Fold DNA-binding response regulator.
Amino acid sequence: MRVLVVEDEQHLAAQMRDALEGNGFVVDVIHDGNEAVYMGNNETYDAAVLDLGLPGRDGLSVLHDWRHNGRTLPVVILTARDGWSEKVQGFRAGADDYVTKPFRMEEVIMRLRALIRRASGHADVMIRSGALEYDTQLGTFHLAGLPLKLTAFENQLLVYLIHNAERVVSRTELSEHLYSYDNDRDHNSLEVIISRLRRKVGAERIETLRGQGYRLCDRS
């Protein structure tokens, strides 16, 4: 899943990038409010972590702009302000959750996973597609009760497919959610990863629909 982190404290932003990437997220980091408006409106993200105190344009203004332009991605507000009135302003602007500094990285990761899971229509912590199970809190997969050993990119791709199980996902959509802004989006590499995943989860679980994309199917 691809996450936008908007945080002007460079050291904290780097820590968040490392923690999120270490837990299977694809991350873009922005330090300025004006650039955040552009990225949020023009790139595809599954969620965002948004600081309120930003140069150029404050976080609430950024969030207002995203919502005004129909951007529905879940947003976690990140701020040193712990007053109730500030939280109310954030929720009224369209925030989905609120974390006050200082915080534990693990908390932010779990909140993001929960928001992304619910945004994709899954109420249960465990997402299942037949014998394939994904634990959204731990970020791990099991097949028929046995743990799956996946590379980082295989895990990222399978996470997106299982969040969208039974729906056809185009190569373009996969690329938008699996590559950061500064990485080349290579459809050929997706084919290679899909082929490797089929060997691990069963070829029949991931269908290719010619000219359309891929679909994760329930093959119990």
